[in-house]
Amino acid sequence: MTTSTSSQSLWQRVTAPLSSGPAAYGFLALYVLACSVLLLTNPRTELSTDIVFVLFMLSMLVAYRSRVAGWFKVVLGVVALGVVLPYFGTLNPFYIDVATQAGIFTALALGLNVVVGFAGLLDLGYVAFFAVGAYAWGIFSTPQISEINPAWGPVDPVMFYPFLIIGLILGLITGVLLGLPVLRLRGDYLAIVTLGFGEVIRVVANNLDRPINITNGSQGIRAIERPPLIIVDQIRNLGIVADDNRLYQLFFYYLVLIIVLLTVIVVARLKHSRIGRAWEAIREDEVAAVAQGIPRVRMKLMAFAIGASFAGVMGVVFASKQLFINPPTFDLLRSINILAMVILGGMGSIPGAMLGAIIVTMLDLQILPRIAAVLREAQAAGAPIPRQFDPTQYQRLLFGLLLVVMMIFRPEGLWPDERRREEQHEVEIADEELEADKAAK
Amino acid sequence: MAVDATVAPTTARRSLGEVLGVVFGPVGQLLAFIVGSAASLSLIVVVLALILSPAQPDMMQRVLIILPQVIIDGLVRGFLFATIALGYTMVYGVLEFINFAHGEIFMIGGVVGATVSFLLVSAGTLESVPPLVFVLLVILVAMAFCGILAVTVERIAYRPLRNAPRLVPLISAIGMSLILQDLARLVMTSTPLGFNARYQTPNFGQPIQLFTMEVGERSVPVILIPRDLIFIVAATIMLVVLNYVVNATKLGKAIRATAQDMPTASLMGIDVNRIIALTFLIGGALGGAAGALFGLRIGTVNPYMGLIPGLKAFTAAVLGGIGNITGAMVGGVVLGFLEAFVAAYLSIFTAGNFSGAAYADVAAFSILILLLIFRPSGLLGEATTQKV
């Protein structure tokens, strides 16, 4: 305990001058600049680029935490995420794909965070809502629709934009439909029922190719349409030569970025609203909350539906980006994956959920393959590693360890919600304050 | 045993008759439910066939001719769910906690059984082992391994969280379940077992022909394969023994006391931690045995096979009234019958449009959802207050 406080204070002594005052501006600008230059000068896919990329993402976190003016943070964010990262993406498409994927999962984690973190309802079938959105666009944008009724044809790709709203509404409806019957259940039963529901959706998607072929069964739906690029001609007119795939990568990156931004704003506003406080009250003590006059079922339903609607929108984007969906895309592991993000970052914490989503996606897409490559090299050099062992295939182990370790050692997450942290560590925080008081005297 | 000191010396020794009543009473109840659910489900399919028969004249024949085989299949499925469900229900009774990793304990039981069979094959002694000894060996090794594994899991992942909010140990259990899945896969794929581990068994003999089912001009023999027979017999023995342990021994009394009121039980001198570990040991051993029996019956096991039977067994536990041992057995059997009937008859009644095997899972989960909404206390929930 004493060692940890002294090391903390040492850490604070180092970081304090850099996180506030004029030095902070210089430090942050320099940090982002250094990372950007390093990234742009070395766009190959290798370990050093990975590290710089992680540092680059970390800079956003540091900027968010430091005490500088709001406009400065916004400028940094716009420069780093809106300009440097996409430009780097044109040099190395792998990283922009990682960033887009991280963005999709960030929005999903934020949505699940509303359900699990704010309202305290453990939802293990969250991916079902994601599937609903994805299948909606998948079916309506491809000739699959003609299988249902030969008179219908696929919709125009430009309908993608209204379909974002339709995906939202579909997610909302599914959320309400599932929520209405099950939300009276106690926490752990709810978890199992939602898990069952997620499995049911997957099984149904897998088997609904008969009697009417709606989902094309286990074959999945391929060649899903992408929306027409809006300003592509203008870009070409500028003399920039880019093929469609590159442009689509950029397009999806910006689209996801905008959706994530909107999600963050909505979620943050909700959290501090009357509804958010009602959720928190229900989470902490249901009986007391009801006694205060909070409409329990309506509030829970609202959390469920809002969480589901984010997943619905992202489902549409995901289907269009991946071009192909099939039932195994939406299995239990995917739900657990998103849950792991929320828990890693900290249940109920908005920056936490984002951090968790980014860390887990990077682990998945960058760090595990990297470890796999290292292991293969070691194996070639004669190290006693079983040939079948491929870390990228052991995500379950990773997520499992993550969940257990977090629950035992840090249930409030890496970046805990302030109020949550206070609840879980009441005594320790009181001690800290006491010591701070003593020091002040 | 710490329990010994707690039981007042004046406690009268129960007569043999009472003990038998306590042990076989639940078995009688189980039997009643087996007969009852088989009969009512048969009645439902017959009525459905009658309604549909004007459209398809041979419907009734097709329904009746497979009926006895479906009932046997349902019974085997039911006993499978019952043996797994016992692990869920015992742990829930004591800790009020869904041991999500229990499905994986079941899976590992299957893998351990496959390992035993594999070792016997590589030692070249498989053919010389009598079938009964082989079955006993496989089951006992799986029980021992899984019992210890369940206790270890409890020690590592659940005990530190005993006083945490409800969802925290549940999340930890989900994590544990994923870890066990991949550890099993790692071990299996790096050894000659392989991802799909095969069970090689001594010759169990010919299928037993029970009787011949004759409907109209068709006749089909009704058979009971020896593996099914082993399953039913072994599961029945385990259920009876468990009933004896829980209802007629001091250990069982300590378990029941802990389930009823943990602080008071510990004030009475019961070592609560030890009783909880024992509960996990018993539940894990039963799950392991179920896994080994399942593997024997199906022929192969893989590291991801635990999730769905685990979920269904949980459904069975809830169906019977979670926390109630007899309830878990009853729920398992009822669910098994239901699933067997859906699997066999759905495609007949929908003219092949819906595959029964695929929608059997959906049926099981729909039951869970409906049940939790309308009767969360389960079939035997409030009626019997016996809780473990």
TrEMBL record, chain A:
The lineage of its organism: Bacteria, Bacillati, Chloroflexota, Chloroflexia, Chloroflexales. InterPro entries: ABC_transp_permease, LivM-like. The keyword Transmembrane helix applies. It is a multi-pass membrane protein. This is Branched-chain amino acid ABC transporter permease. The keyword Cell membrane applies. One of its GO terms (cellular component) is plasma membrane. It comes from Chloroflexus islandicus. It is found in: Cell membrane. It comes from the Bacteria.
TrEMBL record, chain B:
GO terms for cellular component: plasma membrane. It is a multi-pass membrane protein. The keyword Zinc does not apply. One of its GO terms (molecular function) is L-leucine transmembrane transporter activity. GO terms for biological process: D-alanine transmembrane transport; L-alanine transport; L-isoleucine import across plasma membrane. InterPro entries: ABC_transp_permease (IPR001851), BCAA_transport_permease (IPR052157). CDD domains: TM_PBP1_LivH_like (cd06582). The keyword Transmembrane applies. It is found in: Cell membrane. Keywords: Amino-acid transport, Cell inner membrane, Cell membrane, Membrane, Transmembrane, Transmembrane helix, Transport. The chain crosses the membrane at residues 30-55, 75-98, 105-126, 132-153, 229-246, 275-298, 304-322, 329-348, 354-374. Belongs to the binding-protein-dependent transport system permease family. LivHM subfamily. This is ABC transporter permease.
